[in-house]
Amino acid sequence: NASYAQNVTNDAYQIEIPMVGIARDDLSIGVEDNKLTVNARPKTKSRYVKDHTYSWYLNEDSDINNIGARLENGLLMLSIGRVKPVKKTVNIQVN
Are 6 and 15 in contact (CB under 8 A)? Predict the structure, then answer.
């Protein structure tokens, strides 16, 4: 597995993964049960270009409806939007 870089800003989590030899059509990216998964399955495999799978569990403030992916010059760049966590306060009435 190739290494990847992560960065956190106020607005997003950013992940960069080297994907040399991988085409857009070779990628599938999705979120299931709060887990982001990137699958790279190149149609043409070689000694240097192989299948890769990366997964991350997303933080509470991750906006799964605001995830962008861009493949440019052999680098996959993911941006996961952040939302302010909703305070979960409940007042309970005593009977």
Answer: yes
